[in-house]
Design goal:
About 30% of the residues lie in helices and about 20% in strands. It is built from 16 helices and 23 strands. The strands form five sheets. Strands 14-13-12-15-16-17-21-23 form an eight-stranded mixed β-sheet, with helices on both faces. A seven-stranded mixed barrel has the order 5-7-6-8-9-10-11.
């Protein structure tokens, strides 16, 4: 920080004083010159910059907006170093990276921070600076530079599998839009089977793909093409020197064969390890209508002329592309947990308010195969706490949740049985035999007893029983690892936990005007806390981080229990704590909890 601010000065005067201070008073006196002001500016200056690595002299234009310092200091380099200096854009300099907000605060802070960032950019590009360092800066943001030059197409692509080698890509347009718009999302895959599977997931029926078009080509770059993109007709000459020779031949052959297509895509995986970032080029050849994209059906390739007639590219744009392979979907978890869970098999008995949240969290954490068992139907009273929504009212919870999981997370295998756990155990014992973990959240003692009875005979699967106490201030999970365990002694004959932390009038259960129907009251946020506790326990069991019988409890704001009409007699929270997770061995005597 520079000299102390003079409180008698205006923000503009303080900003100019800070500018002179950063530049140095002698340099400012000799080199800082007034510049013609632009719209909404209160002051502007020119200042010469060091000669850059191209031998070019440039100057810095500094503009103070009328609302400075709320308005950012305007820094522009003249003439523009676009595609010459790293972090230079067509309009100015990118002083702040992705999701990095411009500095706000006192005039001195804004000026000093802005010029410090500018100095780092200048140091990359001044005479004598390192070309290797500069190239790395360009390569780290190369797709941004390319997309600024290309502009964006109006269609999005979903790549259903990431090819391991150069490959043609089959295509289907998303068929769910009733009226064609020319902007439908296009699904692409190197294997027609992947297109069929995705069609079945999102549409709900099997597609017969008789002649899928191949308007895309996937290829791995071995080195970086020039940051300055060429005219459309020079695209292949710009690109092919940076491919393996065989890949370049395949690309050129595909491009010639599909020259009659008005729209083609070249998907470029950047240099580096497997799973490197991807950049997608949309190449338009003729009849260019930038606002309309191509539509591909189940037999599109049959309509292509027998004799190829290649057209010179007329327009190249960037296309938004998302990859739906497992590595991409789970790429934000770099702990390695998702990789461990790829082959894990979990059976969820009960997918109500608690069980549905747990199942979804396990799927998003990377569990490779889920089986959902629940006979109930979704009703409006479920919506406040369930992961399913109004579109699923009247649907069986198990099948609707299965459909949601495989639609949202297409690399997760999911099966559904809309019946009771006892029925599945009897008619399809292989479902449980193949499981690594069974999670039961039914709050239905008959089903829980059935599962515990099986567990007491010894199983290869672990068992996790979880539930919420009324009003969701407290939740519990009992984990029984592989082997022989029986937790029935921890409950009364009607399934009431002998070591609960809260007491409620009438047991806290709210009856409904139907035979045997009731519900356990509680809000969505409380259920979310408990679901997270259960999911963490499940994941730790699946990854070998819990190998003994465990009792895990979630306690949230126990002081609120009396206000809700209950009594709390569980563990006290430390001063200042709002929530507590406890993990210990199974309880033996209730006196331990008093």
């Amino acid at each position: 920080m520079g000299a102390l601010a003079d409180p008698t000065q205006t923000p503009l005067q303080r900003g100019i004083a800070a500018l002179r201070n950063v530049l140095g008073q002698d340099a400012a006196d000799a080199l800082l010159q007034p510049a013609p002001m632009r719209t909404d500016e209160a002051a502007s200056f020119h200042f010469p910059l060091p000669i850059d690595y191209t031998g070019r002299e440039r100057r810095l234009r500094i503009g103070f907006p009328t609302n400075f310092p709320r308005g950012r200091l305007r820094l522009n380099v003249e003439p523009s170093p676009w595609l010459v200096w790293p972090h230079a854009t067509k309009a100015g300099l990118c002083l702040h990276g992705f999701q990095e907000r411009p500095i706000m605060g006192a005039p001195e802070v804004v000026v000093e921070d802005s010029l410090a960032r500018l100095a780092r950019i200048v140091s990359l590009s001044e005479m004598g600076s390192s070309q290797a360092t500069r190239d790395i800066e360009f390569q780290n943001e190369i797709t941004t530079y390319w997309s600024m030059q290309h502009g964006q197409s109006y269609q999005n692509l979903l790549l259903l599998d990431r090819p391991q080698a150069a490959s043609e890509l089959f295509a289907l347009s998303d068929p769910r839009r009733a009226l064609p718009s020319g902007q439908e999302t296009v699904w692409m895959a190197s294997d027609v089977a992947a297109l069929k599977a995705h069609y079945r997931r999102v549409v709900g029926r099997t597609a017969v793909v008789r002649a899928a078009e191949t308007p895309g080509f996937y290829v791995k770059l071995q080195s970086y093409p020039d940051i300055r993109t060429p005219d459309p007709e020079e695209l292949l000459r710009w690109l092919t020197p940076h491919l393996r020779p065989d890949d370049a031949k395949q690309l050129l052959a595909w491009f010639d064969l599909h020259g009659t297509l008005a729209s083609r895509w070249i998907v470029l995986e950047l240099p580096g390890a497997t799973g490197a970032p991807i950049y997608c080029l949309n190449v338009r050849s003729f009849g260019v209508q930038p606002e309309r994209g191509a539509k591909f059906g189940l037999r599109t390739a049959r309509r292509r002329p027998g004799m190829p007639n290649s057209h010179v590219p007329a327009l190249v744009r960037a296309t938004a592309l998302d990859v739906l392979d497992r590595a991409s979907i789970l790429s934000r978890d770099i702990s390695g947990t998702a990789k461990q869970l790829e082959n894990a098999r979990v059976v969820c008995v009960g997918v109500g308010s608690l069980g549905s949240a747990v199942a979804m969290q396990l799927a998003r954490s990377g569990v490779g195969h889920l089986t959902l068992i629940d006979p109930d139907t979704l009703v409006s009273a479920n919506l406040g706490r369930h992961v399913l929504g109004a579109d699923n009212l009247g649907s069986l919870k198990a099948t609707a949740l299965r459909d949601k999981i495989i639609r949202d997370l297409p690399t997760t295998e999911c099966a559904a049985y809309p019946t009771f756990a006892e029925v599945v155990m009897s008619s399809k014992p292989e479902v449980f035999d193949a499981a690594d973990l069974v999670v039961i959240t039914t709050a239905d003692w008959q089903s829980e007893v059935t599962v515990w009875r099986a567990k007491s005979s010894g199983t290869t699967w672990s068992l996790l029983q979880a539930w919420s106490e009324p009003h969701t201030q407290v939740g519990h999970a009992l984990l029984a690892p592989t082997g022989t365990f029986d937790g029935r002694h921890l409950f009364t004959d009607n399934g009431d936990f002998r070591h609960k932390f809260t007491e409620w009038p009438g047991g806290g259960i709210v009856p409904l005007p139907a035979c045997g129907e009731s519900f356990i009251p509680g809000g969505s946020l409380g259920m979310t806390n408990i679901a997270s506790m259960v999911s963490h326990t499940a994941l730790r069991a699946l990854t070998g981080n819990i190998v003994t019988a465990a009792w895990v409890s979630s306690i949230y704001r126990p002081d609120d229990v009396p206000a809700l009409g209950g009594k709390y007699h569980g563990p006290e929270l430390p001063d200042g704590a709002q929530q507590l997770l406890l993990e210990r061995g199974w309880p033996e005597h209730k006196e331990e909890m008093l």
